[in-house]
Automatic annotation (TrEMBL):
Pfam families: Asp_Glu_race. This is Asp/Glu/Hydantoin racemase. NCBIfam families: PRK07475.1 (NF005679). One of its GO terms (molecular function) is amino-acid racemase activity. It comes from Virgibacillus salinus. It comes from the Bacteria. Transmembrane segments: none annotated.
Length: 222
């Protein structure tokens, strides 16, 4: 059996992943290899940025290398904080987060880049610096106070209601655009957001990028 081109390091979570989500293999037109990083919970990755997780991520990434993957990514945009630490220990290309696209998007659009994140309260300068985007004009809106999204994805206390989550994301994007009308492109930090990308693109008429955009860009050239 031919090795998967892409390896995906998964957080230790347990919620429904529809097509379009990075955790659903049907999202991709090519085989992928998953590896769950044990005890890499949302609390430790998103809320705490726990440095003790760097070694487990490196170990899991090396496992994927041994399986023959040509590139590795992750299931959480907040892992941009560990981009260099993990990449330095690997032989294959590694891209931790969709946020890595921000410098390129600023270059080609010339304006402010909007970020829609799972948790605005946790997305700090260190995450942007990890993506080489620390000095780029950005605007951030989060899903922190949106109950359907937070309960399903962050807290894992309720089943995913895609209709409600879509409405909440539309509300968040409207607020983002209203507060920053100079935005020229949007990046979805969270890898659970791609199923709703088309709706966001249609309502804003702006280019919208996510982890699948980056994956397709990289894998096509492997």
């Amino acid at each position: 059996m031919k090795a998967a081109k892409l390896g995906i390091l998964m957080l230790d979570t347990d919620f429904y992943r529809p097509k379009g989500d990075i955790g659903n293999p049907d999202t991709f037109p090519f085989p992928v290899e998953y590896r769950i990083v044990e005890k890499a919970t949302i609390d430790r990755v998103v809320k705490k940025g726990d440095n003790a997780l760097i070694e487990p991520f490196i170990k899991s990434a090396r496992y994927l290398e041994e399986k023959g993957v040509k590139a590795i990514t992750t299931s959480c945009g907040f892992l941009s904080i560990f981009q260099q630490e993990i990449q330095n220990q690997l032989k294959v290309p590694f891209f931790a987060s969709s946020l890595i696209q921000i410098p390129m998007l600023h270059t080609v659009t010339g304006g402010r880049i909007g970020i829609l994140t799972a948790r605005k309260a946790s997305l700090g300068k260190q995450h942007l610096e990890g993506a080489r985007a620390g000095d780029i004009p950005i605007a951030i809106e989060g899903m922190d106070d949106r109950p359907a999204f937070t309960a399903a994805i962050v807290d894992e206390t309720h089943a995913l209601d895609m209709e409600k989550v879509s409405l909440e994301m539309e509300e968040a994007v409207r607020m983002l655009i209203s507060n920053y009308p100079d935005i020229t492109a949007i990046v979805l930090e969270c890898t659970n957001m791609p199923p709703y990308k088309r709706t966001i693109r249609e309502m804003t008429d702006l280019p919208v990028f996510d982890i699948t955009s980056l994956i397709n860009y990289v894998v096509k050239e492997l």
